[in-house]
Amino acid sequence: MQMKDSAALVVFSGGQDSTTCLFWALKNFKEVHTITFSYGQKHSQEIEVARRIAMKAGVDFFLQDASFISQIGTSSLTDSSITMDDEKPEGGFPNTFVPGRNMFFLSVAAVYAREHGIHHLVTGVSQTDFSGYPDCRDGFIKSMNLTINLAMDEQFVIHTPLMWLDKAETWALADQLGVLDLVRYETLTCYNGIQGEGCGHCPACRLRAAGLKKYLESRK
Ligand code: ZN
């Protein structure tokens, strides 16, 4: 399967990681589409940020409702009454974990891709960084890839360009792709819903800022 001749669907949130993946896909595929999920995230401006970046990148933007995810599971990212974990608890993962999120996202994305004759899916998951979310790990992605192929008798390929990169290396990739400033100022990763450099103190901001600092220092 030739990548450069093919189309890819990027699971897109408008954050640092999936935006970097979007531009990675634009470099590696002839045609790129995005799918963004509305899953009850507290900061619905995420969706507008995603829409704006997709427009800027000149790619197709599709918004899919997945609000059932926050109705059946509990997470501090979707429920305002839960105080967000600042640190990763001993032997577990933080309550920012949204149970089933990537499983649902990839299942739905695969069906959408199939309808559009697309066989390449791109997701910005990484198992290198701290969170330890089980559905960001390589083993899960490989299993999910096999599952969606068996479910629809198709040959999908799930691409995870960030799987083995830390945050500094993700910034380096954005820079190589010529979108360091776009990712830095126009994406939304902050758990408090502040675009660009964010609130500066939530776990997502701290991770993102530490990675950027490390990358910018390495470049000197
Ligand atoms: Zn923040």
Relevant terms:
single chain; 220 residues; alpha/beta; 43% helix; 11% strand; binds zinc ion
Explained architecture:
- A 5-stranded parallel β-sheet has the order 3-2-1-4-5, with helices on both faces.
- Helix 1 (16-28) packs across helix 6 (167-176) and helix 6 packs across helix 8.
- The termini are far apart.
- Helix 1 (16-28) links the parallel strand 1 (7-11) and strand 2 (31-38).
- The chain is of the alpha/beta class and 220 residues long.
- The protein has helices at 16-28, 45-57, 68-72, 101-115, 138-152, 167-176, 180-186, 203-219; strands spanning 7-11, 31-38, 60-65, 120-122, 157-159.
- The chain is globular and about 45 Å long.
- The chain contains 8 helices and 5 strands.
- Helices cover 43% and strands 11% of the residues.
- The model has no long low-confidence stretch (mean pLDDT 91).
- Residues 190-192, 194, 198-199, 202, 204-205 line the site of zinc ion (ZN).
Strand and helix layout:
Layout: E1 7-11, H1 16-28, E2 31-38, H2 45-57, E3 60-65, H3 68-72, H4 101-115, E4 120-122, H5 138-152, E5 157-159, H6 167-176, H7 180-186, H8 203-219
Parallel strand pairs: 1-2, 1-4, 2-3, 4-5
Helix pairs in contact: 1-6, 6-8
